[in-house]
Structures are given as structure tokens and as C-alpha cells.
Amino acid sequence: MIAAFLIFYITITLFAMIFLGIYGVATRSNLIKKIIMLNVMGDAINMLFILIGYRLVYPVFPPIYEKHITFEEFLRRAVDPVPQALVLTAVVIGMAMNILLTTYAIQFYRLHGTVDARDMAEIMGGERE
Questions:
Q1: Angle, CA 28 vertex, CA 23 and CA 29 arms, to 5°
Q2: Rounded to the nearest 10 degrees, how much is the dihedral formed by the CA atoms of 22, 28, 29, 31?
Q3: pLDDT of 92-109, one tens digit each?
Q4: Mean pLDDT of 11-37
Q5: What are the chain's domains?
Q6: DSSP string covering the chain, please?
Q7: Does the pLDDT at position 127 exceed 70?
Q8: Number of other residues whose CB lies within 10 A of the CB of residue 64
Q9: What is the Rg, in whole angstroms, of the alpha carbon atoms belonging to the chain?
């Protein structure tokens, strides 16, 4: 019973973090703050996927079948490996995107002296004309 309440509050917190990330990306003009909010949002989404694959039974088995337990018991107690694989892939892709975005922000700062998105739009708009 306590575990169900804990899972509920964790889920509510993760959804709040997702909305905080969306709000931060939409309202902040600093690129570094936008990258941080994207990280917060991505980590909350990854935690939701992990939470989806979790079982509320004890003991929880890893998703590796062993001969000493019945197949029905294994299906009832084993965690789902698909969300784990998706999160592992998302972590790697998220890390690569963070490196790419941070590199772009650093390079833009070196060239133009700002990481403000509004100034970026003016600079990029002025170069096109």
C-alpha cells in the first residue's frame, strides 16, 4: 500500500519535472538554461519509462529466466526489459545531443559573444540580408 502511494508521488513529481522542462525551454532565452531544462525533461521522461517497467511485487526478478522458478511466477515477478533498453538508448542519444548543443553554444559564444537566443536571432537575421 505504501509502495503504491510512493509510486503515485514519484509519478506526479516526474510529470511536474517534465512541465518544468517545457516551461524552461519555452520561456528562457539563455541557451545554457535551455540545455539544462532539456536535460531535466529528458531525465524525467527516462525515469517514467523505468517506472512503467517496474513491478510492485517482492521479490522482483531480473528479466532472465531460470529453471528453478515456474514460468508463470517469472512472468508475474520479472521486470519488463523493453523500457530498460529504451532508456539505455535514450541516455546515449541524450548525451550525444547535449554534447552537440553545448558545442554549438560555446562556438556561438566564441564567435559572437552571446548565448542569448534573442540576440542570436538578430545576429542570424542580420547576416542573411
A1: 150
A2: -60
A3: 999 999 999 999 999 999
A4: 93
A5: 2-123 (1.10.287.3510)
A6: -HHHHHHHHHHHHHHHHHHHHHHHHHH--BHHHHHHHHHHHHHHHHHHHHHHT---SSSPBPS---TTS-HHHHHHHBPPHHHHHHHHHHHHHHHHHHHHHHHHHHHHHHHHS--BHHHHHHHHHHHH-
A7: no
A8: 8
A9: 21
Contacts by 59-65 with C-beta closer than 8 Å and gap 24+?
none
Q: What pTM value is reported for the model?
A: 0.80
Nearest in space to 34 (alpha carbons), one of 126, 118, 90, 122:
118
Nearest Cα residue to 36 out of 44, 63, 56, 66: 44
